[in-house]
Known about the structure:
Number of helices: 10
Shape: globular
Strand content: 25-35%
Largest sheet: 6 strands, antiparallel
Amino acid sequence: MQQIPTSQVELDLISQKFVDAANARGIETSVKIDETDQRQWLAFSVGETEYLWSIGVPGTAACDCALLQNHPHHWGTMGQNINREALILTCDKILTKQHLLAKGFSVPKGFMFRRRNIAEAYAAFDAFNGPICVKPNNGSLGNHVHPGLTNREWYQKAIDDVAASYPKVLVEESVEGSHFRFFYVHPKVVGIRHGLPMHVVGDGVSSVRQLTDARNKERRKRAIPSQMPFPVTDFMLDYLARTGWSMDDIPAVSEKVYLSGASNGTAGADTILCWDEIHPSYRELVEKACASFPGLFITGADIIIKDIAQPARPDNYWLLEVNMNPAMAGFYYPWAGEPVDLATKVMDMLHARSAGTF
């Protein structure tokens, strides 16, 4: 494996944040290049442990991040994810749901179906009394997520869409409230992101298409790395049709029209960072939930909250999932809100881990 000085490599934005955090502690960094796929790994040591950080693959979007603890003799691999002990649970949404429910946390009612049992997935429509969400059981980045389904035809179409790409389909109730991602660096929540799904706001004159073009023009002008222009896709058009809209319709003044139900920044949602606006009981709740997963050090916990001003109760929030490799860009480059230096938070945690304080 080739190893070169950091100064000789053009790093992505988040890797550079890790370099800055390391430099602030006097830690040397270098870059290792995996010869099999040319993926770049930022290397640095804390105490006696070497860590490897990577985000994305050269030429692709900034996603699929991973922090590895280097184990050079571990079956010849690059290393093991720092969250490896929690891997089995966190990479499987239905297992995550079952774990959280067993620990006393509120989760949406849901079922998992294998692709070969698609007829059973179709029949599950009758098991719900309200809107349904269909998504991959092992998906990421908000891809193929279909929330708010109330029509059997659209529900079955969503099942087909997920099953075409994934072997397991998760069907669960679409709960009402606002979507947040609590970024957890053991043992605390260090940042909160509100994901506002892709939308336009009517002016009484412009069509949805014109409003979408205007929003993309604004995104190009602001050039926020995590909030780039979004293309109009068939998935978006289907979502509009499902909610009774088309690109040629003209929304009333101040009327919001959503082009997606996904709250992920990678799916075009606005990233709005917040903290004091949300009742502190939710931070305590998420910290307890994350601590219940053995070996979970860094994660993004997704939660739906009915009323952020009210303290957490079993009937006013739902934990959705826990992400093993959560995206960081939105916390540095939000649409609105105060940025959070996650790399420094992670570095602080690694030093505490090295010192044996937890």
